[in-house]
Known about the structure:
The structure holds two protein chains of two kinds.
Chain A: E1 2-7, E2 10-14, E3 19-27, E4 31-38, E5 44-50, E6 56-58, E7 64-68, E8 73-78, E9 87-95, E10 103-104, E11 108-113
Parallel strand pairs in A: 2-11
Antiparallel strand pairs in A: 1-3, 3-8, 4-5, 4-9, 6-7, 7-8, 9-10, 9-11
Chain B: E1 3-7, E2 10-13, E3 19-26, E4 32-38, E5 44-52, E6 55-58, E7 65-70, E8 73-78, E9 87-94, E10 103-104, E11 108-112
Parallel strand pairs in B: 2-11
Antiparallel strand pairs in B: 1-3, 3-8, 4-5, 4-9, 5-6, 7-8, 9-10, 9-11
Amino acid sequence: AQSVTQLGSHVSVSEGALVLLRCNYSSSVPPYLFWYVQYPNQGLQLLLKYTSAATLVKGINGFEAEFKKSETSFHLTKPSAHMSDAAEYFCAVAPGGGYQKVTFGTGTKLQVIP
Amino acid sequence: SQTIHQWPATLVQPVGSPLSLECTVEGTSNPNLYWYRQAAGRGLQLLFYSVGIGQISSEVPQNLSASRPQDRQFILSSKKLLLSDSGFYLCAWKVPGDTGELFFGEGSRLTVL
């Protein structure tokens, strides 16, 4: 079984401030972990993924995430928020090794204040 | 390159009416196909997935069904819609056995009145 918990359904940051979106996972096998972004009334697109290689993963648009097995966490960060980062972000987990099913968290809406 | 199309983009249906949402993938063969529903505050709920023609796995008992009549076509249906079926439906595909990402369509917003 696998699950993810995203802490905070809404996060507000000032433009230029650090973005930190939290994700904790549960998986009975070594997981693959993903962050997706969704803009209003659109599908999801991949920001970054962890698939058992480097624990610090860099993605698009300046985002990165660190896999911490001891904390079962995969938090998403960006050093400096931009207005265009305002969107909903989803953490997701899948069992490693050619997965079929992906389980998503409930999402975090990021608001960027000018 | 691969593309995924969903239609219709928006649908308003009365309670008790039937539903058919279609999803087609182009530029790949034998993809894994998925239907998710997104409701406010509940994230993405996996409804159905398919690893091949005629092979459907249902994740949640509900008023919906799915079919895969062709390799790259995935259809979500209902015989009689309920108010609770309202939501944003997303189709997605991935390469079988791959560690990579899901590729999502643009979504279909269903409102049941």
